[in-house]
Amino acid sequence: MTPQNMFANLGSILASLVFIRAMFQQYFPHQLQNFLEKYSQRLMAFFYPYIQIRFNEFTGERLTRSEAYSAIENYLSSTTSMQAKRLKAETGKNNQSLVLSMDDHEEVGDEFKGVRLWWASGKHGVRAQTTLFNPLPDEKRHYRLTFHKKYRDLIIGPYLNHVLKEGKAIKVRNRQRKLYTNYGCYWSHVVFEHPATFQTLAMEPEKKQEIIDDLNTFSKAEEFYARIGRAWKRGYLLYGPPGTGKSTMIAAMANHLGYDIYDLELTAVRDNTELRRLLIETSSKSIIVIEDIDCSLDLTGQRRKKKKEKKESGEEEKEPKKKDEKEENENKSSQVTLSGLLNFIDGLWSACGGERLIVFTTNYVEKLDPALIRKGRMDKHIELSFCKFEAFKVLAKNYHKLEYHHLFPKISELFEEADMTPADVAEHLMPKSISGEATLCLESLIQGLEKAIEEAKLKAVVEAKKIEESAKNEAKEEDK
Ligand SMILES: Nc1ncnc2c1ncn2[C@@H]1O[C@H](COP(=O)(O)OP(=O)(O)OP(=O)(O)O)[C@@H](O)[C@H]1O
Ligand SMILES: [Mg+2]
C-alpha cells in the first residue's frame, strides 16, 4: 500500500468514526442515561436509608421563581455564612448590605428537634435556550434536602413548615420598607427611611415601655388571635396638641415592628367604595395611618383650611359642627362616611388576614364620634402631651449626649409649671453652631420655659377677667 492510499483509507475511517460518534451521541446517550439512572436509583433506594427532596428555583414554565426556593435561601442564609466554604454574595436592600448564600454544589447541615439533616445546593439541566421571551439563564438551580427515612413525618410536616415560615419572616425583616400614600384611589410608594425610634422618642419611660410591650405582644400573637376568632389587627388612637410627637411615634412604631406605612389621606378618597378598595390593597405587616381624623372624617376639607380660618378669625371655632356642615355641602366631591369607615374596620377588615395596625391621630379627641373610638375599634388610646422633665432628659441625651448638667435642677423645677411641647423643647436643644455648646442650648431652653410660664399666667388673668365679666353680665340680666 502506498502512503497516499494509506492516508486516504485513514481519512475515510476517521470520517466514519466521527459520523458514528455523532449518531451515538444524538440517539443513544439519552436513552442509555435514562435507563442507567432509573435502575441505579432503584438499586440505591433499596440500600440507601436516606430520603431526598428537591426544591427547584423555577417552577411551572420557568417563569415564576418558586416561593419555597427563596424561603429556603433566606432560611439558610445564616447557617450558610457560618458553615459553607464557598459563598455567593449579592447586594441587599439599598445596595448597601451584602446577602450571602451558598454557592453551587455546597452543603450545609441543620438540626431540628435533635434530628440531623443536610441541605445541598446544585444545578442541573442545561437545555432551555435564552430568548427574548425567556431571558432566564440556562442553568436550573435547586436545593436538595437529605434526611433519614425514619424521620419522614417530622421533616415533611413540622420541619418544612418551620423552614418556610422562618424564611419568609427573614425576607420580611430584610426587605426595603415602604411608605405608601394614596392619590385618589391608587397607592404610590417611596422608600421608608425615617430615623425615629422609641429610643429617641421623648416620653415618660414607663409609658413608653407600656407601648413597646403592647406592640411586641401584638406582633407575636398570631395564634392567640386565631384561637379567639378575631382578625389580627389592633387600633391605636394617638391624641394630643400639635408637636407632641404623634407622627414621630408612628414612624417609631413602624421601625420597631419592621412594618410598612400606608398614609391614608381620606379627603382624597371619593367614596366608600374607593376606600374599601384602597384598604384591601394594603399588605400584611403594615400600619394604616389616618392623620387628623377629626378633620378628614366629616370631610370638612383639609386641615390647612381650618387652620387658616382660625388664624383669620383669631379665635377657636365656637360652633365647629355647624361650620362643618356648611363646608360639607360645598365640598361634595368626597363622600366617605363615618359608617363606611366603621364598616370597614369591623367587617371587611376581618376578611383580609395578616397583621395590621390602624392608627388614628387627632388634636381634639373630644370632637371624635364615640362610635369610632370605642374599645374594640381603637383598642389603645395614647395621649401625647406636653414635655415633662423625664421626657426632656431623653432629648438632652439625644441632642447633646448629656446624662447630667448643673442646669438640670433648675430646668426640672421650670418643667413643673411650664407647658411646652417636645417639638419646642427640641427646637431649643438644636445646636446653633457646629461646636454645639450644650450650655447655650439649655440656657435658651430656660428662657423659653420662663416665657411660657409668664404667657400662661397672663392668659389665666385674661380668662379670669372674661369669666368675671360674663358673670357680672349675667347677674345684671337677672336683676333686670
Ligand atoms: N416626643 C418627641 N420626641 C422626640 N421628638 C419629638 C417629640 N415630639 C415632637 N418631636 C419633634 O418635633 C417635631 C414635630 O413632631 P410631630 O410631627 O411628631 O408632631 P405631631 O404630634 O405629629 O404634630 P401634629 O399634630 O401637628 O401633626 C418632630 O420632627 C420631632 O423632631
Ligand atoms: Mg403629625
TrEMBL record:
GO molecular function, one term: ATP binding
Cofactors, names only: Mg(2+)
Catalytic activity as recorded in UniProt: ATP + H2O = ADP + phosphate + H(+)
GO biological process terms held by the UniProt record: response to stress
UniProt cross-references to InterPro entries, sorted A to Z: AAA+_ATPase, AAA_N_dom, At3g28540-like_C, ATPase_AAA_core, ATPase_AAA_CS, Mitochondrial_chaperone_BCS1, P-loop_NTPase
AAA+ ATPase domain location: 232-388
Pfam families xrefs: AAA, AAA_assoc, AAA_lid_At3g28540
Biased composition regions of type Basic and acidic residues, renumbered to the chain: 310-331
Keywords, sorted A to Z: ATP-binding, Hydrolase, Magnesium, Nucleotide-binding
Keyword Oxidoreductase: no
Stretches for region Disordered: 304-332
Similarity annotation: Belongs to the AAA ATPase family. BCS1 subfamily.
UniProt protein name: AAA+ ATPase domain-containing protein
Native species: Lithocarpus litseifolius
